[in-house]
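Sample entry copied in:
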Amino acid sequence: MSIKIEKKITAYEVAKPQEDKQEDNVTAIAPLLERDEILEGNTYKIKTPASEHAMYITINDVVVNKGKPDEHRRPFEIFINSKNMEHFMWIVALTRVISAIFRKGGDVTFLVEELKAVFDPRGGYFKKGGKYMPSLVADIGEVIQQHLISIGMMHGQLQTAELEAKRQEAEIKLGTDAMAKGQLCDKCGAMAVVRLDNCDCCLECGDSKCG
């Protein structure tokens, strides 16, 4: 099809083919968890043979969907304190990064596996009960795991009063060094399996062959 031009050409423009508008596929990011004025939490103590000073880890939670059937707690922030200033810089960095991940919401249980997989090139240490910790960072991961179990975000064995009673029973019947003489636990890997009342019991995780 031809078009007859009857006027003098004074200017021209190259026409571009019209493109279909594409929909924006940006995924919305969930809003950060909001902090209440008062938070509930727990403080855990870590004592390693590498330092004379203990480390105290505080994890505070927020209550989500308060008053509703699906009300539950989620970790919101973490603080790590110690008189030992040797690790101050990386501890501050770690607390800020972990707290930021907590506030993002979603599944934060992956932190446990990542932290517990950190190995100290100088070597790890054995905790009370014979459980081996490859690093201080892994020990912090263990604390976070215990806290997530306590608020229902992970499944696992808590350090319960019943387990502490078993440890005291073992000391009375087998001596104060009972845990140091324990056998390997198939469940948690600690050298803490002793025989009580004709039953093998792990004094670290509570696993028992008798149920």
